[in-house]
Amino acid sequence: MFSVLKDLGWFFSREKKRYAIGLILLIVAGVFELLPPRLLGSAIDEIVRGSITSGSLIRYIVMILALLLIIYWMTYIWMHNLFGGSNLVERLLRSRFMGRLMTLTPSFFEKNRTGDLMARATNDIRAVSATVGFGMLTLVDSTVFFSVVLFAMGFLVSWKLTLAAVLPLPLIAIAMAVYGKAIHDRYTLAQDAFGDMNDQVLESVSGIRVIRAYVQERHDEKRFADITDDVYRKNMAVARVDSFFEPTIRFCVGLSYIIGLTYGIYLVFRNQITLGDLVSFNMYLGMIVWPMFAIGELINVMQRGGASLERIDETLNSVPDVRDPEVTVPVASPDTIQFNHVTFRYPTSPIDNLTDISLTLHKGQTLGIVGRTGSGKSTLLKQLLHEYPAGTGSLTISDVPIQDISLDRLHSWMGYVPQEQILFSKTVRENIQFGLEGASDDKVLEAVSTAAFLGDLETLESGLDTLVGERGVSLSGGQKQRVSLSRAFIAEPEILILDDALSAVDARTEAQIVENIRSRRAGKTTLISTHRLSAIEHADQIVVLDGGVITERGTHQELLAKGGWYREQYERQQLENNLS
């Protein structure tokens, strides 16, 4: 149960001063809390004996008030330290969690659902933060404070009465052991279900247009109702076990009260303790109720925190399958890109996705990549991003294997526009400046012009300050593509990768963008995959892929002369353009 505290040892070691002050004051405050009942008992004994005076009464009142003020001050400090640590570990874990996600490769995100990762970053981290705050409070109160109160009951009142009153305690220990195991198992299942629900909500929100277009609202509501019902059932399973904690403890505490009161009255009549002692003992017995409850809360919090930390550590301990080598080779600039018999297979694929790819691209050249849907165009381009472990053969940049180049250095050369445009819920300007932090408006407008987006920009309500909405929902498909293109252009990358990035624009706009790329990227390398052959007619080299294999290669004119798939596709597209 307490393994979660061992696993969080790095945090307690880092914040040892905070926790030393907090825990010491928590214990000292607990000791001070024992004094007012003893003073009250002494005052009652003086009243019974008839020896109380106004002076002694005032003295008792002043001493109790002074103790309450000291306890108030110490309680403020220990609460600030313990619960401040709770907030601190939450911030640290969230930062580490996000930092780890930034280092992980697509393979990880293919295996882990977004909704589940969100659940780990929210509910699970909050459960761990409760462990280092409220959990430490219950740990001290259920052990140290409990022991101190028992000591006071035994030494200041009567050991016989104390031992009789604590007879029900073993029942609590047995019940907590059973409940704790059940809480851990059921809470893990509940958190997994919460992740499934998060994933469902994300899918529904992002796909709301499709859902409405196919009149699937009721079906989606039914699906969401089913998954929320599953979350409800699993959380109720946790609650059912959780609800046993308090009644069990109340039952045991009630037994202690009955035993303490009955046996205490017997001892008073036998003159073995005084009436004041009995009053003090009952006040101590009331004080021991919270430590008993704390035992249940401790087990509950520790089991939840342990289950959550296991889920968080699963992500934090994930190792990216593509990392920088121990020794990187410095490369000044990407002068040549060479694929030499490269064969590649995705980690989850049963077949090779690229087979025996060989080609050379010099600085300043443009490579066009065409082929049927699913032929491997995007896979070929992604080899340069080095997101997956390299396959067989070699891919070199300036004669250096890509595996030996620092990932940061490699990515600093790249400007990448994927098939699916990702825009952030910010303004058009901020989305474009993502490619070059702090870029001036003149620089932004230059990139917008290269992407042939100036005309559309004037039609937007607030121009560059227009909010694009989540995933660019307020923009059309073509506008989203050109904002993404602007983001890549503004960085002026050494290598520009366009993965079917012109599919949503009309032929005239495409021609303008292609011309701008040719004129403004002279001397820099460009790779373009596309279905529209007009976008790569100017390319220095064009390759045709089919099933991950290069079936044709050459310039536009050379491929037309060969009379293969390329020429057939070109003539079909020319005919379609003439008919339209």
UniProtKB/TrEMBL annotation:
Spans traversing the lipid bilayer: 20-36, 57-79, 130-155, 161-179, 249-269, 281-301
Any one Gene Ontology cellular component term annotated for this protein: plasma membrane
UniProt KW keywords: ATP-binding, Cell membrane, Membrane, Nucleotide-binding, Transmembrane, Transmembrane helix, Transport
A matching Pfam family: ABC_membrane
Membrane-topology descriptor: Multi-pass membrane protein
Subcellular location, record wording: Cell membrane
InterPro entries from the UniProt entry: AAA+_ATPase, ABC1_TM_dom, ABC1_TM_sf, ABC_transporter-like_ATP-bd, ABC_transporter-like_CS, P-loop_NTPase, Type_1_exporter
Origin superkingdom: Bacteria
Molecular function terms, GO-annotated: ABC-type oligopeptide transporter activity; ATP binding; ATP hydrolysis activity
Sequence ranges assigned to domain ABC transmembrane type-1 in this UniProt record: 20-304
Limits of the ABC transporter domain: 337-572
PANTHER family: ATP-BINDING CASSETTE SUB-FAMILY B MEMBER 10, MITOCHONDRIAL, ATP-DEPENDENT PERMEASE MDL1, MITOCHONDRIAL
Protein name: Multidrug ABC transporter ATP-binding protein
Lineage per the UniProt record: Bacteria, Bacillati, Bacillota, Bacilli, Bacillales
